[in-house]
Amino acid sequence: MSTTGSTVLPEIRTVTAQFFLPLLHAVGRRTAWRKPVLHGGSALACALGEVMTEPKPRVWFDEPGHDWTPGAVALDRRTRMMYDERHIFINGESFRAGGADARLMRTLADQRSLNATQVQRASTDAQALLQDWFDAGWLHRRDAA
Fold it and tell me: What are the DSSP E strand ranges found in 5-107?
């Protein structure tokens, strides 16, 4: 599994189902947290996605040298982004996503970039999120070729 490219959680869930969930069941028999963790599958998926996208301690992101304007963008090479059917995970953070916004963010995770048309057609909320990620240095404007 690549640590620099996007990773789709359905592949990871296979590993989770084969290793982590049986481990949680075994540990859970002796702990009080078994029921909330195992029955709140969304919480487990969020925790797993956040941990798997958390940058290593030596990784940092540079602030942009210019202001945000909607246009073509690309993820920083150090950005880790994944998704599942309900969430988007990026650099240790999770966001609930659905509909067109979720499809847009999945495209960003898979292709590691969006063209100007995709960004400009994004909802106001999705554009605000892209701007936040731009301001954090997680993605950069991509110059038109």
Answer: 7-8, 73-75, 81-83, 87-90, 93-96
Sorted by where each begins, the domain ranges of the chain are 1-145
**What is the pTM (predicted TM-score) of this model?**
0.69
The torsion angles phi and psi of 124, rounded to 5 degrees, stand at: -60, -45
Cβ-count burial of 82 within 10 angstroms (0-12 exposed, 13-18 middle, 19+ buried)?
buried
Full pLDDT tens readout for the chain, 145 residues: 444 444 445 544 444 444 444 444 444 444 444 444 444 567 777 888 888 888 888 888 888 989 999 999 999 999 999 988 888 999 999 998 889 999 999 999 999 999 999 999 999 999 999 999 999 999 999 875 4
What is the C-alpha separation between 57 and 41, in angstroms, rounded? 28
CATH of domain 1-145: 3.40.366.30
The residue type at 2: S
Kindly list the distances between the CA atom of residue 141 and the CA atoms of 4, 16, 47, 124, in Å, as whole numbers in the listed order.
19, 35, 30, 18
